[in-house]
Write a structure and sequence with these properties.
Layout: H1 2-7, E1 21-24, H2 40-57, H3 59-75, H4 87-97, H5 102-112, H6 117-123, H7 127-143, E2 149-155, E3 158-161, E4 167-168, E5 174-177, H8 180-184, E6 190-196, E7 200-201, E8 213-216, E9 220-229, E10 234-243, H9 250-256
Parallel strand pairs: 1-3, 6-10
Antiparallel strand pairs: 2-6, 4-9, 5-8, 7-8, 9-10
C-alpha cells in the first residue's frame, strides 16, 4: 500500500479544494437494487414509452444518451467479436461513461430511490436506464472470463469508514479499475481494493477505455476483510459474497398486478411463481 501513497502525492496539492466528509459503509438499504429477475421481457416491452417520458423530463439524460448513441455507431464495428448485448444495452453502458454530470445524477437517485416503493414509482426518473444498465451487466457477466476481478477504487472528498467482518453494499453503480494507477487519479481520501464477482469489465463500451473500468452493480454484497484508517487515506478491502436485493420487478408489478395479486420473492435467483405475471387472484404477494 505504501507505493500507492507515493504515487498519489501529486493529488495532495488539490486536497484543500475539496471538503472531506466521512461516510460509514453499510448495506445501503435506501438503494433501489432491482435485478428484474423473471420480468425481463415485460420490462423490455415498457422501454419505448419509459424512455420517451424520461428523456422529456431529464435533458441531461437525453443528451448523454444521444452522445452515447452517436459514439456507438462509430465504435461497434471495431469490437473484437459479436456482442451478446442489444444496441440499447451497449448505449446504456456508454452513456454511463459520458463525460459530465449524468452518471453522478443517476447514482444519487439510485442511492435514494429505494427508501420506499413510492419513491421509486413516482420520483425516480431513470427507470429505463436502470433496467438497461442492470441488464447490460448481467448479459456481459454471463460469458465473462474470468468471472471475478480484483479491482481498485479511489475516492476524493469522502473518507469511508467500516470495520472488519462487516457486510456492505455500495448501493449504486460503482466504477472501479483493474489498474490501481488509474484508480488513484480519481482520489486518495479513500482507496478500495475490491474482489468483485458481479462487477463487469466494460472497457469495450466506455468513452475512456484506458481506465480499464469494471462496473459494480448496487446489489453486490461484500465482506470487509480489512479496514485501515490512515492519516491521509482510509484503506478498505472488500471480498464479494453474493447478490442481495430488496426489490424485484417493482415497475411491472405495479402496472400488471393491481387487479390480481402476484408473487415476486425479492432477491431470489429464480422465478418462484406466476410466470409472465399470469397470476391467480389468490396468489400471495410481497410488499417490495
Amino acid at each position: 500500500i505504501g507505493h500507492l501513497l507515493v504515487s498519489a502525492s501529486p493529488l495532495k496539492v488539490r486536497r484543500d479544494l475539496f471538503p472531506i466528509k466521512e461516510v460509514h459503509l453499510d448495506m445501503a438499504l435506501t438503494s433501489f437494487d432491482d435485478q428484474y429477475k423473471g420480468c425481463v421481457e415485460l420490462m423490455e416491452a415498457e422501454m419505448a414509452e419509459l424512455n420517451r417520458t424520461e428523456f422529456a423530463i431529464n435533458r441531461v439524460y437525453a443528451d448523454a444518451w444521444a452522445e452515447a448513441a452517436s459514439m456507438w455507431k462509430e465504435k461497434k464495428a471495431s469490437l473484437p467479436e459479436p456482442s451478446a448485448l442489444k444496441p440499447e444495452h451497449a448505449i446504456a453502458l456508454m452513456a454511463y461513461t459520458v463525460q459530465g454530470r449524468f452518471h453522478k445524477d443517476f447514482n444519487t437517485a439510485v442511492r435514494e430511490a429505494g427508501r420506499t416503493r413510492d419513491d421509486y414509482l413516482h420520483r425516480f426518473h431513470y427507470k429505463a436506464f436502470h433496467f438497461l444498465l442492470t441488464r447490460a451487466l448481467h448479459l456481459l457477466g454471463i460469458t465473462a472470463q474470468p468471472r471475478c476481478h480484483k479491482v481498485y477504487r479511489g475516492v476524493r472528498s469522502v473518507r469511508f469508514t467500516s470495520e472488519r467482518a462487516k457486510l456492505v453494499r455500495f448501493g449504486q453503480f460503482t466504477s472501479s479499475s483493474r489498474s490501481n494507477e488509474s484508480a488513484l487519479h480519481f482520489g486518495t481520501d479513500s482507496f478500495f481494493t475490491i474482489e468483485t464477482c458481479y462487477g463487469v469489465n466494460i472497457k469495450n463500451y466506455s468513452f475512456f477505455p484506458g481506465e480499464e473500468e469494471v462496473l459494480i452493480p448496487p446489489f453486490e454484497k461484500f465482506k470487509v476483510v480489512n479496514f485501515t484508517r490512515g492519516q491521509e487515506t482510509n484503506f478498505i478491502h472488500l471480498v464479494s459474497l453474493e447478490d442481495e436485493s430488496v426489490y424485484n420487478c417493482v415497475f411491472v408489478k405495479e402496472k400488471k398486478c393491481k387487479m390480481q395479486k402476484c408473487f415476486f420473492k425479492s432477491g431470489e435467483r429464480r422465478w418462484l411463481s406466476c410466470p409472465r405475471l399470469n397470476c391467480s387472484p389468490g396468489a400471495p404477494t410481497t410488499t417490495a
